[in-house]
Amino acid sequence: MPTLATGICNRPSAPLAGLIRSVACQRPPACPRRQGKARHCRGFTLLELLVVILIIGIIVRFASLSIGQHSSRLVEEEAERLYSLLRLAGEESVLEGGELAAEFQRDGYHFARLNGADWVPVEDDRLLRPRQFPPEMQVDLRLEGVEADLSDTQNPPRILLLSSGEMTPFEFRLSDDEGAEYTLQGDFTGRLTLAGSGEADEDF
């Protein structure tokens, strides 16, 4: 308590003392967040739940569309790759004067060169190396109008690419579970055509 130089205690006046006590007793307001937690936790409203479900549905739909487009693109890429390799092998056969063939199985294919009476796999050509189909892809091959057995490993189906420029007539179909489908066809003269599902044939 403050005192004067005379030693007499200097008491504040009654109004001032009441103001001091009022200020001293004031406490900061409780945090709304803490106050809310002390009472109860507010749950989600039905409208908020519906909005969340709607957002999740939109995300799932876009994800499924993206997967479908990716799958369709894989089928297209495989069909275009097979076309390019068959065309390359046909040109190489004509230029080198040797006989080549594409041998197919359910999970992939490779190229072979005729050596005497035997077909020997091509190993010294980086472009004509063995290829594998994606696991989710289905393939079907018809040679001269007859369905080929792609599970025959002893005598695999072959598309012959002769040095005369001729080719075994064939129809090769690639598809997946999403509905994407491409068909590659070749005729006796070596002409190739490629078409997707719902598309017109394109000559190459």
Shape: elongated
CATH superfamily: minor pseudopilin epsh domain
Helix and strand element order: HHHEEEEEEEEEEE
Rg is: 40 Å
The CATH topology turns out to be minor pseudopilin epsh fold
- Structural class by sheet pairing and helices: alpha+beta
Q: Overall pLDDT, averaged?
A: 78
Given the structure, what is the number of helices?
3
Overall number of strands:
11
Q: Please state the second-level CATH architecture.
A: 3-Layer(bab) Sandwich
Strand order of the largest sheet: 6-5-8-9-10-11
Helix content: 25-40%
User: Low-confidence spans: pLDDT under 50, at least 5 residues?
Assistant: 3-9, 34-38, 65-69, 200-204
The largest sheet is: 6 strands, antiparallel
Strand content: 25-35%
CATH C-level label: Alpha Beta
- Span of the ends, CA to CA: 106 Å
Question: How many domains, as an integer?
Answer: 1
Any overview of this molecule?
With 204 residues, the chain is of the alpha+beta class. It has a single domain (46-203), classed as 3-Layer(bab) Sandwich (minor pseudopilin epsh fold), CATH 3.55.40.10. Helices cover 35% and strands 25% of the residues. It contains 3 helices and 11 strands. It has helices at residues 14-25, 32-39, 46-96; strands at residues 100-105, 108-115, 118-121, 131-132, 138-143, 146-147, 158-161, 170-175, 181-186, 192-196, 202-203. The protein has a 6-stranded antiparallel sheet, with helices on one face. It is elongated, with a radius of gyration of 40 Å. The protein starts with 13 loop residues before the first helix and ends with a strand.
